[in-house]
Design goal:
Two copies of one chain form a homodimer.
Chain A lengths: L1 E6 L6 H17 L4 E4 L23 H15 L2 E11 L2 E9 L5 E6 L11 H4 L10 E3 L2 E5 L8 H9 L4 E6 L2 E2 L5 H22 L3 E5 L1 E5 L7 E5 L3 E3 L5 E4 L5 E6 L2 H10 L21
Helix pairs in contact in A: 4-5
Pfam families (chains A, B): CN_hydrolase
GO molecular function (chains A, B): N-carbamoylputrescine amidase activity
Keywords (chains A, B): Hydrolase
């Protein structure tokens, strides 16, 4: 199966941004991609750099947004993973991935479960933690274990998706550096991010797709300079082996996923066989003190 | 804190083998190592390549073995992580790590929980799965989350050790290649092994020590040629960053662990803060079908 990841810069103009994203989807579909993954909150700038109620306006178009991307998926005949700002009611919003089938129907949605809150990433202000659990989404290209950004640091999320039958793990994400950090610290952070996601592939014997933002976006509040999203979107196979990886430029990253290889690897390295489910109960505790 | 990992070849003679291991411990202690980690089942060859009741003889000396390593820990004044073949009664054996305090007292033991069973690694024949759970061991150099080999593929094990207060994760291990595998497959396997263990450091914000065997050991039964243990023992910090890594030769690998850095990283990347413990219950299921 051919997949495409659209790694893009936000260019301060939502309409132009949208146009470019659609043009990337068109290109990817013409190249035969069956599954296209967009980065986290791809419609707008990464507004969580500061806390301002004004940004809730971006969620006002939630219903229209879903209709819009449904039409795009149908037009290009692809399975499309989007990342949208969901308004459920006043004062209740989610960071939600909606997956569309080739015919434009909604295959399913996932509400981000793990919500970060760190300088520059004030997501707890905007997003109520998801209440749909870790449920993979059945599509014509397989059962997709869609998770979002901060979820990528949690082996529990990847494992639960796998136990529920996910064929692939998919992470739309928005992560980057602060310019003031040292070169070594930046390298450690990027390596950590790649390593933990590759490890989910390894532990669960399934491929991972991670689609990240790229480019500098300034902090509207001026508290920090801004975030330099590090790109480096990638696809890895079931042994965590990198199949394709982007750099720090806007790009459409293509990869071929070999379902036969996944099956082979899961039989050779049968980690699910030997899990000590009799001894895992404390994983549901905050801390064992 | 200075740690040392003793990565050794087995040289077909248990007495000579023992002598060399002790000489390595002596060297490491003279260099100021406070914590010394030995590889999995370091007293003998890796006998699990075939299934033969004759090998249970290696467990007959279990009580004497514990007394012996206790004296070694005391003699050199180090915290020592050993990996022994435990006889509990006739027909009931474990793959057990015993940790000794500097004064020779037993700090604690861990019985390998996840037991593999694959061609060349017939451990289910020899070892009853551990029944002590995932309990870190308190020592004068910190709370040690000792796990063994196959455990390294399970994020659950690393997480549970962390939730119970482990300061470091430690894996005595014995893993290697089959010569007939392709160069690419060997690379994928070694990368997987390093990546998954580095990911436990990242997910839990604590350093990882992994001490592996090295060198070729033939299969006594002649069914397969044997296993070429790949060495590559390593120590990584709480961001998964490699601090020291061995190659494919016998060596004593030294590393300095910086506890202050661990604390910093865990505050900057507070993954434990955001765990969705309300949504993890299915991790205790075999599969959600």
């Amino acid at each position: 199966m051919k997949v495409a990841l659209v790694q893009r810069k936000y260019n301060r103009n939502s309409k132009k941004n949208l146009k470019k994203t659609i043009s990337s989807i068109e290109k990817a579909s013409l190249k035969g991609s069956e599954l296209i993954v967009l980065q986290e909150l791809h419609q707008n700038e990464y507004f969580c750099q500061s806390e301002a109620t004004d940004f809730f306006k971006y969620a006002n178009s939630w219903i229209e947004d879903v209709e819009f991307w449904s039409k795009i998926a149908k037009k290009y005949g692809v399975v499309l993973v989007t990342s949208l700002f969901e308004k459920r009611t006043e004062g209740l919003y989610h960071n939600t991935a909606v997956v569309f089938e080739r015919d434009g129907s909604i295959a399913g949605k996932y509400r981000k479960m793990h919500i970060p809150d760190d300088p520059g990433f004030y997501e707890k202000f905007y997003f109520t933690p998801g209440d749909l659990g870790f449920e993979p989404i059945q599509t014509s290209v397989g059962k997709l274990g869609v998770l979002i950004c901060w979820d990528q640091w949690y082996p529990e999320a990847a494992r639960l998706m796998t136990l529920k039958g996910a064929d692939i793990l998919i992470y739309p994400t928005a992560i980057g550096w602060f310019d003031e950090d040292s070169k070594k610290e930046k390298k450690r952070q990027l390596d950590s991010w790649t390593t933990i996601q590759r490890s989910h592939a390894i532990a669960n014997g399934i491929p991972v797709i991670s689609c990240n933002r790229v480019g500098f976006e300034e902090d509207a509040s001026g508290v920090i300079d801004g975030i330099r999203f590090w790109g480096n979107s990638f696809v890895c196979g079931p042994q965590g082996e990198i199949i394709a990886q982007a750099g720090k430029k806007e790009t459409i990253l293509y990869a071929e996923i070999d379902e036969k290889r996944t099956k082979e690897v899961r039989d050779i390295w049968p980690f699910l066989r030997d899990r000590r489910i009799d001894a895992y109960v404390d994983i549901s505790k905050r801390y064992c003190d």
